[in-house]
DNA sequence: GGATATGGTGTTAACGGTAACAGGTTTAAG
DNA sequence: CTTAAACCTGTTACCGTTAACACCATATCC
């Protein structure tokens, strides 16, 4: 391993100058800078992360708290993790997963928290390092999330554009901001078109949505589209409709929300609000690193636009 | 942050003694040891990872290479990651994900590699730090994996025990050890019972298995069980059988392999060979840490027994 | 009883990097 | 032309930990 000293010798300067070229390049003459850069290249210099961490009192570790039960949303996370990890890797940060609320053994430079519920608020506030949430909140935490309202707006607009006369919203019965936002997108769009709204809510399990459709089958009118707050619920709706040999997408449309895995295995494949999970991971990481660099200053919020992934569960102009 | 020196002062010894209590306790008198332990507890001492890493020329980072396309096996990985991460965390190691073959920027103390294909052999061999594979291989790499042969043995035995007269194996057409092992478990069991074997192979996509069943439907005899090399294929088989309103599980049985997510969303839920993915992650990590501690010495292989998760896609004595 | 091992502890010098300060040179101002 | 400010670069000390060695007791041997 080549060190600062090696580079310094090769470039005929002191260690300190080399260090400055890396961290405060504006303080060094251009002439020296180029010769230092050359030396670094020739020797294939890579800074020693541990040494830097030691002197800066950093750990180069970011902890990712996954507070919700992973099994319920599992496929989701891999993309998030990949995004976070990729971005952190660029700055030589490493990731540590924390799934239980076990004690914070070993330090870290910051936290990314996902699946926060309102009850977690208290202990999150006590954390002594910068925190960024993945997922909307109405508190003062910095966060990244999909633009949930935009997502259901897009879904509802699309359903109407495809000519479905009734649009029913199948929501998740949790009192969390992301759900409110998704419902809001639906409501706003329906009101804009002066149409009546109808919202049903269930725990996020496919069989509940399925049972609902089964119980309501006789009252369902054709030409209805179900805009769902998750792919899970949409999956259940579709399964139930299939049981009655309903004509999807001509008589009934189904639109999910998430776009991770489940929409792919449904038959027909689900039209869904595709969240940019990977990019959200990248953004979370970026925001956290910025916050660390700026000594914990608030970084605000970042909402990324989802895309509507169109598949066989809704009518489609273009087919 | 309390340091070694703080502890040393409190216990009236030198830093070195404290360090020895941690790393070479056998070299320290019991009397001193206890007083050092007390001091550590009172001051809530946590070793500084960066300092330790610096002096030991370690990074405390493990890289996880995910070589296969994640989208195909996605739900799988979260459990693996959690297992690995949990175990690494205990020893203050952090994880770095590497999904593209991008350059090995920044060092690490070891690698865990998953999704290795035969073509990756060459560059893997060149890695300069200890490597442990997740997944069978017939080369000299240390690895952890499910006992694949045992898995299909269990599945096939179970199918026969439930009285299915024909058992057909639906395999994945890749030339990889895990597939050979799964086929072997099926073959051995059938031969043991002196029954004829039948193996079909497809790429690991549900629609291919689905199309196969559809094309063969007229020739399929009731009382047949399909033992599949993946839940994906099993899912396809089941979907096709459902299309014909076949009686699952009475006329046809379906058994998958993996037990991550997909088996849960199938209707009826899939009986499947449940891999202990989380534990495999833990084992991988443990093996790698042992290898690092022993300066890269081979650690052999570790095959964990899967369990048969019984659900509605097969007949069941107990129901 | 003096030489020789043995076990337990402290001292010193690194590991690779950076902040803070010191010192030298150039530029600008009066 | 002097003096102060601005600019660059080097020196020193330290971040927290450990290996290697030095040292001093005590136990062991002939």
TrEMBL record, chains A, B:
UniProt keywords, alphabetically: DNA-binding, Transcription, Transcription regulation
Xref: InterPro entries: HTH_LacI, LacI/GalR-like_sensor, Lambda_DNA-bd_dom_sf, Peripla_BP_I
Q: Which GO terms describe its molecular function?
A: DNA binding
Q: Which CDD domains match?
A: HTH_LacI
Domain HTH lacI-type, which positions? 2-56
> From what superkingdom does this record's organism come?
Bacteria
Q: Where are the transmembrane segments?
A: none
PROSITE patterns named in the record: HTH_LACI_1 (PS00356), HTH_LACI_2 (PS50932)
Entry's PANTHER family?
Answer: LACI-RELATED TRANSCRIPTIONAL REPRESSOR, TRANSCRIPTION REGULATOR, MEMBER OF GALR FAMILY
Name of the protein described by the UniProt record = LacI family DNA-binding transcriptional regulator
